[in-house]
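Researcher: Here's a chain I'd like modeled. Treat it as a single chain, no partners, no ligands.
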Amino acid sequence: MAEEKKEKIIYIATHGGENPEMASLPFVLANAAQAMEVEAVVVLQGPAVFLAKKGYLQHVHSAGFSPLQELLDSFMEAGGRLLACVPCLQERKIDVSDLIDGAVPTAGGTLTLEILEANATLVY
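Model: Modeled as a single isolated chain. Structure tokens:
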């Protein structure tokens, strides 16, 4: 009997600390997906790559949500995958050594494969 494939959803985040609400939403939803036993991947693009920079999240909080640091920690502890756009990091002069533990630098080809394997992809 074939093993049943787990559902997978990708959240592409495009906002950083300049918009705490939009930066938080992908992580709120990713945590909910994980609670429903859905594989969740958060991809950081554009200014959102700052969210993967060490020390950055401690200042990002949107009213009505848990602090973004807590949302990210919960996401990662539950096995979430955090991908950061390599060209976006380079554009913002963020070195890979400056990324938080668990953040994976990723280029377009890998992201395209992730999207093709997913049941849904949402952009925030």
